[in-house]
Design a protein that fits this description.
The model has no long low-confidence stretch (mean pLDDT 97). The protein contains 14 helices and 17 strands. The strands form four sheets. The protein has a seven-stranded mixed β-sheet, sandwiched between helices. The chain is of the alpha/beta class. The chain has two domains: 157 residues, Aspartate Aminotransferase, domain 1; 235 residues, Aspartate Aminotransferase, domain 2 (3-Layer(aba) Sandwich), CATH 3.40.640.10. The protein starts with 8 loop residues before the first strand and ends with a helix. The structure holds pyridoxal-5'-phosphate.
């Protein structure tokens, strides 16, 4: 059926070719460590793309899922369950750090679905409140909002969009962190805009305070629904419950997903009263979203992540990670292949790799491969950023151990013939 080689890699299998053809086969995990099919141990600097925030192999989460599965697994949204109601109430009340509350929570199964819901709500609000014709949507250069047709339409990357064009109409793009361009672009004909506070897939650029202020002011002025895509940054990853809090952003809608249910698929769009008030029965829906198992597990994740001590831990470990990356960056600051900026916030960080244009892909691939061979799993963001998004429970020692491997992988990649 498939063959796993001595490196725990599978090279031919029935996975679609969009994912490439070579996979490391993982078997299990514990805390910040992962083990491959042959038992080799890795430090996990990726968390399954910023998902496993509380680490792997959690007995507490498994027990909650098991207990709930024995009671009831699925009801559809024709009915309610206590875990979904409790989680919705907690998330609706989670805007204290933003100085606002949310009226309701639409659950889904993925980040893209949460963003689809948010974009649909923005258009619905504009149509019903501002009138026909005010349907435009704005997103920003280097953004990533998902792969479904709507979310893809606000993800302005030629590589992702071109194969599927034409996409949704009425969508414009503006430069990220450019308040003047934003001012020139926005008017009342926009229904909504969607923005990341730290651009997770597009290079780890963080939103400036000036840009956040312009977004708040202009969206309020033109009654535009401001959607913060916190699918990657939300629930503590950047050191505050929402990254919007530290950036000074005042979103109408927040979308969440990755860490929400401890690795199970669950997403949420947190919506304000002004949107909830104009919704009619049947406007939007989902069969699986917000089921009792995922929401029961998410309740426990929420209890852990929303504790002030937990967020202080993330901030502290985020500083340790930034310092370690700065040391690597200093060591390799010169040469044809060199390191550049350390970016990001909290435990979502990036290290820029600068190489000749035609060699960048190769250099990045070598860094990631060498890291894996040495026992570290790490991510990429954009074309040339090494992205680090470990489980949020990581210790300073584990960060240092992972960074030592990363440093060696970078050194070897830079000195290898490309
Ligand atoms: N939004 C952001 C900021 C993301 O980082 C991602 C995924 O990486 C998505 C949306 C899409 O989430 P999903 O892959 O769960 O649809």
């Amino acid at each position: 059926m498939f063959e796993i080689d001595k490196e725990a890699m599978v090279h031919a299998c029935a996975m679609p070719r969009q994912y490439g053809s070579d996979f490391l086969v993982l078997r299990e995990g514990k805390g910040v460590y992962l083990y491959d099919a042959n038992g080799k141990k890795y430090i996990d600097f990726g968390s399954g793309i910023a998902v496993n925030a509380l680490g792997h192999g959690r007995k507490d989460l498994a027990k909650i899922a098991y207990t709930q599965m024995r009671k009831i697994v699925h009801t559809s949204n024709l009915y309610a369950t206590a875990p979904a109601l409790e989680l919705a109430a907690r998330l609706a009340g989670s805007g204290a750090g933003l100085g606002q509350g949310f009226a309701a929570v639409h659950f889904g199964n993925s980040g893209a679905e949460a963003n689809e819901a948010a974009l649909k709500y923005a258009r619905l609000y504009a149509k019903r409140v501002k009138g026909e014709g005010n349907f435009k949507l704005l997103s920003f250069e280097h953004a990533f909002h998902g792969r479904t047709m709507g979310a893809l339409s606000v993800t302005p990357s030629a590589a992702y969009q071109e194969p599927y064009a034409p996409l949704l109409g009425g969508i414009q793009t503006s430069a990220f962190n450019d308040a003047e361009a934003l001012e020139r672009t926005l008017d009342r004909t926009f229904a909504g805009l969607i923005v990341e506070v730290v651009q997770g897939e597009g290079g780890l650029m963080a939103m400036s305070a000036e840009f956040a202020a312009a977004l708040n002011r202009l969206c309020a002025l033109h009654d535009i629904i401001l959607i913060a895509d916190e699918v990657q940054t939300g629930l503590g990853r950047t050191g505050t419950l929402f990254a919007s809090e530290a950036a000074g952003l005042k979103p109408d809608v927040i979308t969440l997903a990755k860490p929400l249910a401890g690795g199970l698929p669950l997403s949420a769009a947190l919506i304000p009263e002004k949107i909830n008030a104009i919704l009619k029965t049947g406007d939007h829906g989902t069969t699986f979203g917000g089921g009792p198992v995922t929401t029961a597990v998410a309740g426990r994740v929420w209890d852990i992540v929303s504790k002030p001590g937990f967020l202080a831990w993330v901030r502290e470990k985020g500083e340790v990670l930034a310092e370690e990356l700065a040391k690597i960056a200093q060591t390799h600051a010169a040469g044809a292949c060199r390191t550049g900026e350390v970016r990001g916030k909290g435990l979502l960080r990036g290290l820029e790799i600068i190489a000749p244009e035609d060699k960048t892909a190769d250099v990045m691939k070598t860094i990631l491969t060498r890291a894996r061979e040495k026992g570290l799993l790490v991510l990429r963001s954009g074309k040339n950023i090494v992205r680090i998004a470990p489980p949020l429970i990581i210790t300073s020692k584990e960060i240092q151990a992972g960074c030592a491997i990363l440093a060696a992988a970078i050194r070897e990649s830079f000195s290898a013939p490309h």
